[in-house]
Each structure stands twice: as structure tokens, then as C-alpha cells.
Amino acid sequence: MTTLEENSRLIRIGRIDYANVWPVFHGFDEKKLDCDAEVVYGMPAELNRKLREGEIDVAAISSFAYGMNSDDYLLLPDLSVSAAGAVQSLLLFLKSPLEKVRFGKIMMSSTSATTVNLLKIVMERFYGGKPEYEAAEPNLHAMLESADAALLIGDHAIRASWENHGYRVLDLGEIWRLWTGLGMTFAVWAVRRDAAKRHPDAIASIYRELASCKRRNLADREPIVREAVRRIGGTPDYWNGYFDGLSHDFGPSEQAGLNLYFQYARELGLLDGPVGLERWPESVHA
Ligand SMILES: C=C(O[C@@H]1C=C(C(=O)O)C=C[C@H]1O)C(=O)O
Question: What reaction does this catalyse (predicted)?
């Protein structure tokens, strides 16, 4: 039985605290919604856990985390963080030559789920290696003290790429494109099925606001670029190039890349079952 309190409870929305989601989230205002809602900021790995445990109801999460829990989630249509090639913020910094890295030690940012598993696919399936992996706080120099390579994502990768560190750098989006000919989806917007069922109007209101922000940000990127320069650094040219390389759609080409990633992840034993890409709201009523 659903009580009145249950129907009108606060809905929690997870927002990844990296610039790559700004083209969807910039301008998102929970006060404009037809429901009580709160935005919870976090690194992808934190939001992956909070959504899984029901601490939040709807969120941008790692696409890998969606794959792990797709029975409990639905996808908000046509929202993602994807790229058709180089991303500039999914970077493997090499202290040793690649030949040594293949069987060496790699430190991986503890904030990531999709890219750490993409790196395993690249190292093991594409490069025929078998390195040792360890999760670590995203700090390039600390990571490389005791490893041959370090994986950073998001703003951590961007800031590190601007340093004069002297390491060779591989872009995981570019490698995926070279080997598969496909793009890749790194994050999706997922809603818990139980929340979608209990609070259909609230989720509809949140979705409308996200879709409208995305439309507005696509039509005028200037405010996002200005904000990125102010908060993170770099030049307007850098950020225009960065956002040009990303897609926030989730159409047939993005889905093809993600399906192949899930297939490889299963073949390597990183994921258990097949993953269905079920969309809200159709699946709520199925
Ligand atoms: C493009 C990116 O996509 C991301 C990568 C994620 C992951 O590896 O789990 C999760 C969300 C996104 O932040 C990025 O971080 O730069």
C-alpha cells in the first residue's frame, strides 16, 4: 500500500561532479520541478553505489553500473555521456613503455566504473596483456610512485593533461574507436524501477527539466564554456573542443558501442548476465 507520505516524498537526483555532464545538467533547477527534489553531487562511483542502495532515485551513473544492475533500473531516453572517438578526459598516463605496462601495474581512479573496465578490455582483449590493477585516489603523481601507468577520468584527467608531466598519454575513447570502429557511452541517466513506479509524475517532471536543459545547452554552449574556464581553467577553445568531442544523445550509434562493450565485459567475466537497454517510461507499464 502506498501512503500519502510515500507519494509525496523527496526525490533525490544524483549529479556527477564533472564537467562532462554540464551539457545536460547546467541550468537544472530542482525548484522548478512539480515535486520535492534534492540534487546530490558526487563522483560516478559514489553515485553508482547510492543509486544501487536506493539512497538516491535517479542519477547520471557509469554505464557499467547500469549494466551491473539493469534489472533494477530504467534508462531515461536519449541522455548519456558518449563519444565517437577521443574524449580528452579518459586518459592512461604511461610512466613505463606500453610493452611493460601490459604486464605491469596500473593504478586506476577510484571514481570510475566504466573506464576501469574499458581499460581491462583494452589491455587484455586488444593488447593481449594481463596487468595488475589497483584502485587509488585520483592523484597522478601519487599513483605513479608505485605503478607503471595511471588511469584518470573526468576533470581529474583534464587537469592532469594540462600539467607538464612528460608522460605519454593514451585516450581510451580513441583506442576503443580504433579497435571497434564504434563510439562508446560512458555514463547514462538511470532511474530506479521502484521509484519510477511509485513516483511517475515526479520522474516525468525531472525528465522534462533535464531534456529542456539539454536542448537549451545545445543551442547555446557559451555559458558552460565560461563556467568551465572560471571553475576549472583552460581556454574557451579547449572547452569548445572538449564538448565538441562529446555526445549526450543515446541513439542507435551510441547503443551499438555500449552493447559491444557489455558483450566484451561479459566475455572477460567482468559482467554476469546480458544487459537489456530498457527505457523509461514504456517499461514501467510492461
Ligand atoms: C567522459 C567521461 O565519462 C565518465 C566516465 C565514467 C566512468 O568511467 O565510470 C562515469 C561517468 C563519466 O564521468 C569522463 O569521466 O571523462
Answer: chorismate = 3-[(1-carboxyvinyl)-oxy]benzoate + H2O
pTM: 0.96
Looking at the CA of residue 64, tell me the nearest atom of ligand 1: 9
Give the CATH class of 90-180.
alpha beta
**What spatial distance separates the first Cα and last Cα of the chain, rounded to whole Å?**
20
Strand-pair partners of 91: 152, 171
Atom of ligand 1 nearest to the CA of 173: 1
- Give the residue, by CA position, lying nearest to ligand 1 atom 16: 154
> What are 153-193's pLDDT values in tens digits?
999 999 999 999 999 999 999 999 999 999 999 999 999 99
* Per-residue model confidence as pLDDT tens digits over 190-224: 999 999 999 999 999 999 999 999 999 999 999 99
Cα separation of 70 and 155, whole Å?
27
